[in-house]
């Protein structure tokens, strides 16, 4: 009788991600595999962090879709704003690859559930945003999850910054 042990790669795919320390390869895979990022909590006010990060993502070549019920119907940085993820017309705009969450941790779970529902590939919770239960739900549905990080910090750190 022969005993087979899973390879380290197989174990990594089947075990939950350590959300305290992300391997650079994990972040690179998410960021280089994405084209469209929905920014939930995007603000039309230039002084807000979500506005600056959305602008940075656009300058890095990503298509950004702002989501904010208080700005819905208007535009933020030239993109039409939607009240919620479910309203984003993925049939017209294409799939949402990453849902970037600029909401308090208590509100992140509902956004993660919406990201699962629209078929996003990843959820990215901004600095200070952590919801382990929501992360587990997303991972159970095959989404990659990043918590308590900012793509505008990670992109240049990983050497992906343009210009």
What is shown here, in short?
The chain is α/β, with parallel strands linked by helices and 163 residues long. Helices cover 37% and strands 15% of the residues.
Task: Kindly describe this structure.
- The chain has 163 residues and is of the alpha/beta class.
- It has a single domain, classed as 3-Layer(aba) Sandwich (Rossmann fold).
- The chain is built from seven helices and seven strands; from the N terminus they run H-H-E-H-E-E-E-H-E-H-E-H-E-H.
- The chain has helices at residues 8-14, 24-32, 49-59, 90-93, 105-118, 132-140, 151-157, and strands spanning 36-40, 63-67, 75-76, 79-80, 98-101, 122-125, 144-146.
- It has a five-stranded parallel β-sheet with strand order 2-1-5-6-7, sandwiched between helices. It has a two-stranded antiparallel sheet with strand order 3-4.
- Helix 5 runs parallel beside helix 6 (132-140).
- The protein starts with 7 loop residues before the first helix and ends in a 6-residue tail after the last helix.
- The model is unreliable at 6-14 (pLDDT under 50).
């Amino acid at each position: 009788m022969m005993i087979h042990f899973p390879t380290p790669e197989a174990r990594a795919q089947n075990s939950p991600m350590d959300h305290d320390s992300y391997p650079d390869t994990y972040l690179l895979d998410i960021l280089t595999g994405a084209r469209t990022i929905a920014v939930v909590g995007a603000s039309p006010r230039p002084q807000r962090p979500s506005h600056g990060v959305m602008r940075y993502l656009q300058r890095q070549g990503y298509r950004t879709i702002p989501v904010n019920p208080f700005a819905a119907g208007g535009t933020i940085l030239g993109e039409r704003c939607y009240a919620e993820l479910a309203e984003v017309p993925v049939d017209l705009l294409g799939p949402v690859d990453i849902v970037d969450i600029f909401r308090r941790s208590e509100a992140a779970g509902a956004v993660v559930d919406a990201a699962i529902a629209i078929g996003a590939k990843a959820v990215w919770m901004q600095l200070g945003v952590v919801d382990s239960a929501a992360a587990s739900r997303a991972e159970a549905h095959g989404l990659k999850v990043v918590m308590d990080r900012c793509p505008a910090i990670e992109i240049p750190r990983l050497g992906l910054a343009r210009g």
